[in-house]
Amino acid sequence: MSFEDESHAYAALLAGRVMPGDPGCSKMVVRTSSPGASTRCRRGDPIGEAERCALIQWVQAGAPAPAVGAVPAGAAP
Q1: Does residue 63 come out as left (phi exceeding 0), alpha (psi in the -120 to 50 range) or beta?
Q2: Which of 13, 24, 48, 59 is the most buried (most CB within 10 A)?
Q3: 60 with 23: CB under 8 angstroms?
Q4: What tens digit of pLDDT does each residue of 4-20 get?
Q5: Contact assessment for residue 66 and residue 6, using Cβ atoms and an 8 Å cutoff
Q6: What distance in Å separates the CA atoms of residue 40 and residue 21, rounded to the nearest whole number?
């Protein structure tokens, strides 16, 4: 997955990792809900329940693209 810029990263998410509007068919959601499974998304501790809930809500909302120049919550401006 390329993180060259926001548009490439977002396009990569929609290329099979996220199914807008359908969390149950979105690989990212499935993999973050499988603690201990070999298909888990990341190594180490699973993401927290709040982060997982935000991911599911974002997918259910249609996985909207971030606003251009938006600063993520908690990030330094």
Answers
A1: left
A2: 59
A3: yes
A4: 788 888 888 888 889 99
A5: yes
A6: 21
C-alpha dihedral over 26, 28, 32, 37, to 10 degrees? 80
Computed from CA positions of residues 48, 65, 71, 41, in that sequence, does the dihedral angle turn out positive or negative? Answer: positive
What is the value of pTM for the model shown?
A: 0.69
pLDDT tens figures, 30-76: 888 766 556 555 566 667 889 889 999 999 999 998 776 555 555 44
- Number of other CB atoms surrounding residue 14 within 10 Å: 12
Can you tell me whether residue 14 is helix, strand or coil? helix
